[in-house]
Design goal:
This protein is of the alpha+beta class. It has eight helices and 15 strands. Belongs to the inositol monophosphatase superfamily.
Length: 290
Amino acid sequence: MQSSENLSSKAVLDLGAAIDIAVSAAHAGAAILQSYAHHRSDLIIDHKARNDLVSQADREAEAAILEVLRERSPAYGIVAEETGGQAQGPATWYIDPLDGTTNFLSGIPHYAVSIALVAHAGTQASPGAPLTEDTPVVGVVYDPNREELFAGVYGIGSWLNGRRIACSRTPRLEDSVLATGFPFRDFSFAPEYMPMLGDAIARARGVRRMGAAALDLAWVACGRYDGYWEMGLAPWDVAAGTLLVREAGGVCRDMDRQAPWPIAGRLVSGNPAVYDALHAMVTPHLKRPA
């Protein structure tokens, strides 16, 4: 028997097929969301935890996405917000069927479907040597209210509705517009986060909190924001956006610079200049291991 590591090292991903699959799945999920958009009061809503809601719209959208992915890419693992799963095979899909659930349930038209494919170490995702670490290689973030489809492919680029996008060229943190997200579910990191927010308010041109991490990252990728940081997220919130930012010429990294991508949900991102300054701003407030 060959080990899974050896099997993975021989895998070559077809990223062209993968992006097509992801786009189809995102549209399928968004169609479910929008079918509920005008009668949200009829939705059955459950509380997973404090300030962490899930509705039948989330569940049905995820089911529609999973149907597409399982039919067209059965060899890949799946990790989804509502149904779970595990990383396996040469690559794994990370799915958030509704990023911005609170916005959706409140009638605020700012939410998205987020789908990413993360290739595992040893997999070949482009010509050349296999990847040495787990890496997002396909990312799709679809905003059905604006009909904006953000898509990115490893080594090729990022696009918005078919037009290539790039991060901003803002050179300084003092000239930047930043995005962030406040603690809303896990408040244990508030002592770290609140001083960061205070510094950002004092130093940046503006700070925005819109409530959908996938769109925050997509907006960094297309230059609407110059930088973005947040803590307390989940892998499916950030996987697709990480790829979009990187392929748009920006930087998106784990806040602690330990994981190869922000799988722990603590990230700093931006164009290269703003990223450096933003990371330097947040780092002094991070708790150090005892």
